[in-house]
Input
Amino acid sequence: MTARERLIVGLDLPTVKQAESIVTALGDEVIFYKIGHQLAFAGGLEFARELAASGKKIFLDMKLLDIDNTVASGVENIVKMGMTMLTLHAYPKAMRAAVKAAEGSGLTLLGVTVLTSMDDADLAEAGYAGDARSLVLKRAEQARQAGMGGIVCSAEESAAVREIVGPDMAVVTPGIRPAGADAGDQKRVMTPFDAIKAGSSHLVVGRPIVKAVDPAAAARAILAEMADAMGPTRS
Output
């Protein structure tokens, strides 16, 4: 894959109008977008369909988790929307139900391990006994066993996760910040260059691009950094 195929711009914006403005500003620089809860509940699902119909790839970040039948029914309808990637929390039963529902489609299912806004203290407060890294690796193995297409984790865990899931599964990492950028509410972050080197297959970048004065220039800088990590011909 080229850098453009591996960069996912997070449209974490309050309105479709603002998202449309960013997509227009980025033009052909970006071919892959993430739509999460904020935009989804403001008309973003229809916008996702429109972007997919126009040839863009869409990562629908819904983090599904429910009883098996409900998860399966949701996945079946998301397949019909023409989405490229979909997240669900990496609970074994939910993953198995989703994999069965998506069978034969082009939808890549991603298991969310531990949110990049959480650290060991946050997990302890939520009732988990272990540390974030151990839980990430456990869920990565469970995702592999369930037949998922990939997982979502911090770039800090990418190298260890890649050893577990092998070369073919996607390792999608949010919490990507160029050197010197504000980490915001993310607690486990990494630069684009280091994330690619660590084994991430796709990088999710939101605020450093969508909040930039010149989003296209910000995207080009990140793409250049990714391409540098990948090698001289992988722009």
